[in-house]
Amino acid sequence: MSAPAMRERFYDQVGRLLDDDPRVALVLAVIGASAVDPAVARRHPARLIDVGIREQTMVGVAGGLALTGMRPIVHTYAPFLVERAYEQVKLDLGHQDVGAVLVSTGASYDASSAGRTHQAPADVALISALPGWTVHVPGHADELAAVLTAAAGSDDRVYVRMSSQSNDRAYATDGRLHLVRDGGGPLVVAVGPMLDPVLAATTGLGVRVASTSTPHPFDAPGLRALTAAPSDGSAAPAEVVVVEPYLEGTSAAAVAAALADRPSRVLHVGVRRDVEVRRYGTPKDHAAAHGLDPTGLRQRITGWLR
């Protein structure tokens, strides 16, 4: 039996959290309201709040709940959660110095058939621009369940970015970079669901592949360890490719800071900044258009290796 999709797993897991923790409240703006188990909704009518199509209010309500000691989980499509309600995320959560768990669906071009209104490839860059946030980009439904449960048990500001794209298996969710394949040579870092496409793209290439499901804060010590200078004292530059499923170069500042005291050569690969892909089609079509399918990734990486 195949593993459930992340979104399906989210609705199941949030029901468990509502049952287990009286601090947890789920705040929605219509989207997702019909997906929650009706029995869960009947058991917790005061902690399952649907504000209607009012995303800014949704985040404001979450801020108010957090001020009373509750642990709000806020969920809708990424552009409505991050872009439309950005001021409320900044002020009603960040400026009030309270936490919440924001859980988005529709990563980058997952909702390709819905058009640009449902696409937000800059979401991680926007959240990362605010102080005090942790960003998780799980690559598997089991990773989603792990980071969601951990986030619900804290009071931190946490953004969880779900995707319809998934790896074949789950990996660690401890916030660190983990080496997945050691082929020698430059390091290719894959974020979340980009790992399987990166592994396919780099088959037979002399590179090492590492992954993380937590791109912010970026695991700088892990990156430095995986790109450590040779023991013979030679000044070989650190060579790194970062492949992210959102706006290209989102982690550029963090990677540059991690490698600031040594020569480095870095390629960032992600959703293109120079063009809006104005087509419908499938997420697979959009991945190809952005060069994020295995064929496109191999072309970018081999071109950079030459």
Automatic annotation (TrEMBL):
GO molecular function: magnesium ion binding
Transmembrane feature ranges: none
The Transketolase-like pyrimidine-binding domain, residue ranges: 4-170
A UniProt-annotated Pfam family: Transket_pyr
InterPro entries: PDH/Transketolase, THDP-binding, Transketo_C/PFOR_II, Transketolase-like_Pyr-bd
Gene3D superfamilies named in the record: 3.40.50.920, 3.40.50.970
Domain of life: Bacteria
Name of this protein: Transketolase
Protein source organism: Mumia flava
